[in-house]
Amino acid sequence: MRVRAQGSSGPPGRQKILDVYLNDHLAGATGGTELIRRMAVEHRDSAYGSELKALVAEISQDRRQLLRLLADLDVAVSHYKVYGAWLGEKIRRVKPNGRLLHRSGLTLLVELEAMRLGVQGKVLLWRALLSASAQEPRLDTDWLERLLHRAEQQLKTLDSLHARAATELLSAVSPRVAKSPAGTGGAVAGDLDMG
pTM of the full predicted structure? Predict the structure, then answer.
């Protein structure tokens, strides 16, 4: 990022808001980077491996760019938030999933959804900073637009991976309740286990 002016513009309260906002996004980026790295290792030999590997490179680079932005804007890194996010991603791995020793097939689908939420947050971050760039001369709009474009492409990749994983996982699932015949407004008698 190219810094166009020195010092912060605006009242001191604005700098504090910027500090909190960017550190919250850095914490999210830390958790997301850890998650996508693990996903790429876990699925390296699957049909998802190459796309996950590419996402690792991009998302890791985006986190480094965010750290650079914090430095350029004189925002101190809140290490407790970063470490908390890192630890939170590690702890989340031990949540029960219905299996004792192995991850369930549903894990990939849920993790892709979590990654999509994180990348959507990153899109909103870049958009917010682009909106603020008119009032904040230290923000480089060209650089932010490139980051925004890459994040939007990441969303498309995650959507594609999610659709494939959902098809693979959920198409084999047979519904327990049959579709109701027209006009009955509910399940067919005998479809629901009331016992």
Answer: 0.74
